[in-house]
Specification:
Layout lengths: L2 E5 L8 H15 L3 E6 L15 E3 L10 H16 L7 E6 L2 H9 L10 E5 L17 E4 L2 H10 L6 E3 L18 E5 L4 H4 L1 H9 L6 E5 L5 H10 L6 E5 L13 E4 L8 H7 L5 E4 L5 H4 L6 E4 L4 H12 L3 H16 L3 H11 L12
Parallel strand pairs: 1-2, 1-4, 2-3, 4-5, 5-6, 6-7, 8-9, 8-11, 9-10, 11-12, 12-13
Helix pairs in contact: 2-3, 6-10, 8-11
C-alpha cells in the first residue's frame, strides 16, 4: 500500500480538475492505497469533496497577508505543518497550479530520507500561469496533453522524468444516436475569454440549416453571451440548460459536441462525448483537442477563431449519411477506450519506478 497525497489550490468544485482528481483518487483507493486530497479551504461547491476517499484543509488565512507572494509562502508553511500530522507520504502530487508543487516540496522537509518524490500535475499549459517556474521543484512531471508536454520541457531544467499521461475518460454504457435535424451541444463554463462562444454564435448565425444548440453551463459571461445571441437573432434556437450535475443523462440524440476555445489543457467534455459515441467539432488550439480528435475520423478540427472553417465543419457533418455518422460515432467510442483510467494509472506507475518499487503499486 502507498500513501499518495494530492495538494490543490482553492477550486470551484465544478471543474475538470475536480472531475479528474476524483476519478484518480477513487480508483487508487479502490486498489488499496491511502489517498488524501489536501485543499486550502472548502470549495465553492463542496459536494465533490464528499466523493473523495479523504479530504483535509490546510490553510486559515491571516488578515495581515499583504501580497500574493506572501500568501503563497504562508500556504506552503501551512501545508507543511498540516502534513506533519499524517503518515509519511510515499508520493506528493502538486496539481491544479504550479505553486502547489512548491507546497509539496517544502512539506518534504519535515521528514528524513528516503526522499519523497514530488510530482507536478498541471491541468493547463504552464504559460497560462504567473509562476510556471515553480514546477522546477518537482521530481516528476505528468503532462495531460502533448501540447502541455512540449511546454513543460521549455519551462524546466532538463529532466528525464517528463511523461505524457493523458486524462482518464469515464467509460459509459450510454450510446447517443444521430439526431434527425442538426443538434449541437456545448458543455462549458460560460467564460468567453477562453471558451470563445462568441465565435460559435457568429458561425451559427450565418449557418442556414434548422440547427438547435443546447448550452450546458454557467459562468461570469452568461448575460453577455445571451445578449450576443439576441443581437445575432439566434437566441430562439438556443436552449440555455444552465449548470446540470449529470448533463448526459437525458441526452438521447445529438449531431456533435462543439468546442471553440482559444486554449485548453485536456478538455474533459471531449472525452465524455466520445465515451457516448458523439463526434466533436473543436478548435485546434495548442493543447488538448488534437490528442483526441482525428480530423474526419471521429470529429473535425478548425483553426481557433476561424468562423468560416467552423461553418465548413457544420456543413460537412450535416452532409453525412446515417452510416457515415455512425462510423464517426464508433471511432469516437474506440478513442475513448484508449483513455480508460487503468491505462492512465499504468503510466503514473511507470513514471515513478525510479522512486518506488513496482510491487508496492498493487496493479
Amino acid at each position: 500500500m502507498l500513501n499518495i497525497y494530492f495538494v490543490l489550490e482553492h477550486v470551484s468544485g465544478q471543474g475538470g480538475v475536480e472531475t479528474v482528481v476524483t476519478s484518480v483518487a477513487r480508483e487508487l483507493y479502490s486498489l488499496g492505497h491511502r489517498v488524501i486530497v489536501f485543499l486550502p479551504d472548502a470549495s465553492d461547491n463542496p459536494v465533490w469533496e464528499q466523493l473523495l476517499p479523504e479530504v483535509h484543509y490546510f490553510f486559515q488565512p491571516k488578515v495581515n497577508i499583504s501580497n500574493r507572494f506572501e500568501l503563497i509562502a504562508e500556504k506552503a508553511r501551512s501545508f507543511s505543518a498540516t502534513l506533519a500530522n499524517f503518515a509519511k507520504p510515499d508520493i506528493l502530487v502538486g496539481t491544479h497550479v504550479p505553486h502547489t508543487t512548491l507546497y509539496a516540496r517544502m512539506a518534504t522537509g519535515y521528514v528524513n530520507l528516503p526522499k519523497i518524490p514530488v510530482v507536478s500535475w498541471l491541468h493547463n499549459p504552464p504559460r497560462l500561469f504567473k509562476d510556471p517556474h515553480f514546477i522546477n521543484y518537482a521530481d516528476v512531471h505528468w503532462a495531460i496533453s502533448t501540447g502541455i508536454l512540449d511546454e513543460i520541457k521549455s519551462f524546466i531544467k532538463p529532466s528525464p522524468h517528463i511523461y505524457w499521461v493523458g486524462n482518464p475518460i469515464a467509460i459509459s454504457d450510454q450510446r447517443i444516436h444521430a439526431s434527425n435535424q442538426p443538434q449541437y451541444l456545448v458543455m462549458s463554463r460560460l467564460e468567453n475569454q477562453q471558451k470563445r462562444l462568441d465565435i460559435l454564435f457568429n458561425a451559427l448565425a450565418k449557418h442556414p440549416s434548422p440547427w438547435q444548440l443546447h448550452v450546458f453551463g454557467k459562468g461570469p459571461d452568461e448575460d453577455m453571451l445571451k445578449s450576443v445571441a439576441i443581437q445575432l437573432g439566434i437566441n430562439e434556437k438556443i436552449i440555455w440548460e444552465g449548470w446540470v450535475e449529470r448533463p448526459w443523462d437525458n441526452i438521447k440524440t445529438a449531431t456533435a459536441l462543439v468546442l471553440t476555445s482559444d486554449f485548453e489543457g485536456m478538455p474533459m467534455n471531449i472525452g465524455e462525448a466520445f465515451a457516448r459515441g458523439v463526434p466533436v467539432i473543436s478548435s485546434d488550439c495548442h493543447s488538448g483537442p488534437r490528442d483526441l480528435i482525428k480530423h474526419g475520423v471521429n470529429g473535425f478540427l478548425f483553426p481557433p477563431g476561424d468562423i468560416d472553417s467552423l461553418m465548413q465543419s457544420f456543413r460537412r457533418i450535416e452532409s453525412l449519411s446515417d452510416k457515415e455518422w455512425a462510423i464517426l460515432s464508433t471511432n469516437a467510442l474506440e478513442t475513448s477506450l484508449k483513455f480508460d483510467i487503468h491505462y492512465i494509472l499504468q503510466r503514473f506507475k511507470l513514471s515513478l519506478l525510479d522512486f518506488i518499487h513496482e510491487e508496492r503499486w498493487n496493479f
